[in-house]
Specification:
Oligomer: heterodimer
Number of helices of chain B: 4
Radius of gyration of chain A: 15 Å
Number of helices of chain A: 4
Largest sheet of chain A: 5 strands, parallel
Largest sheet of chain B: 5 strands, parallel
Number of domains of chain A: 1
Largest interface: A-B, 24 and 26 residues
Number of strands of chain A: 7
CATH superfamily of chain A: DsrEFH-like
Shape of chain B: globular
CATH superfamily of chain B: DsrEFH-like
Low-confidence stretches of chain B: none
Mean pLDDT of chain B: 97
Number of strands of chain B: 5
Mean pLDDT of chain A: 93
CATH architecture of chain A: 3-Layer(aba) Sandwich
CATH class of chain A: Alpha Beta
Strand content of chain B: 15-25%
CATH topology of chain A: Hypothetical Protein Ychn, Chain: A
Distance between the termini of chain A: 22 Å
Chain lengths: 133, 101
């Protein structure tokens, strides 16, 4: 980890690192997606440089139209829209994962940047910390 | 009487769905629940396999799980939606239930 990737932030002079949360699981079937959101909010509270990557089944986390009423579960998809208010605006979707699932950019609840797997790999390599969910 | 097969895993993450298709005999029923409902989403390799299988087996999806995942209106034609009561009816109408986990 290079020291020059760290900079003085507005978080009381603490160190700001580049964090990427890699989301690979569908929502609801497991607790991973919800736990990832918890960590995003914690990282935001510490004013870290946070990116969210949605690959494989993780792209399902941000699909529009989630209606949990009849299953009596908590719908956490609106939380992704609230991330902007925490200055978390780096959301990336892997193109191959999206297309394999018959989805397009228009199917998501938030604006995302669509990256190829190769571009995603480069972005992952540029992080200080990668957390997997 | 025939078997009711349930699949609760995403076809992209596990091979439960593929294995179910291989083992479900003609005249049996497949009920997609939880993350299994993604197998019926249009425009995917899983949906194409499902459409082929539908010539010999009936395919159902649990509506609350479909809605929860935002897959309503995205499913391939011919997949019948059931609610929790419908799930129970399917169980009683078959000789047994085989879960593909």
């Amino acid at each position: 980890m290079a020291d020059d990737t760290m900079e003085e932030g507005s978080n009381g002079g603490g160190v700001v690192k580049k964090f990427m949360l890699v989301n690979r699981k569908a929502p609801y079937g497991t607790i991973y997606a919800l736990e990832s959101l918890e960590v995003v909010l914690i990282a935001a509270a510490f004013e870290q440089d946070v990116s969210l990557a949605f690959i494989d089944d993780g792209v399902y986390e941000i699909v529009k139209g989630q209606d949990t009423k009849s299953a009596e579960m908590k719908n956490f998809s609106p939380t992704y829209r609230a991330l902007e208010g925490y200055d978390i605006e780096k959301l990336y979707v892997e193109k191959e994962s999206m297309e394999t699932r018959g989805l397009t950019e228009k199917d998501f609840v938030v604006p995302v940047q669509v990256l190829s797997a190769k571009e995603m790999a480069d972005l992952m390599e540029s992080q200080d910390v990668v957390l997997s969910f | 009487m025939s078997m009711l097969h349930t699949v609760n895993k995403s076809p992209f993450e596990r091979n439960a769905f593929d294995s179910c298709l291989v083992h479900a005999k003609k005249g049996s029923a497949i009920l997609l629940i939880e993350d299994g409902v993604y197998a019926a989403a249009k425009g995917t390799a899983a949906a194409r396999k499902l459409e082929a299988a539908m010539k010999e087996v009936s395919v159902y999806a649990l509506q609350p799980d479909v809605d929860t995942r935002g897959m309503q209106g995205r499913l391939v034609d011919g997949v019948k939606l059931v609610d929790y009561g419908g799930f129970v009816n399917l169980v009683t109408q078959h000789q047994g239930v085989q879960s593909w986990l």
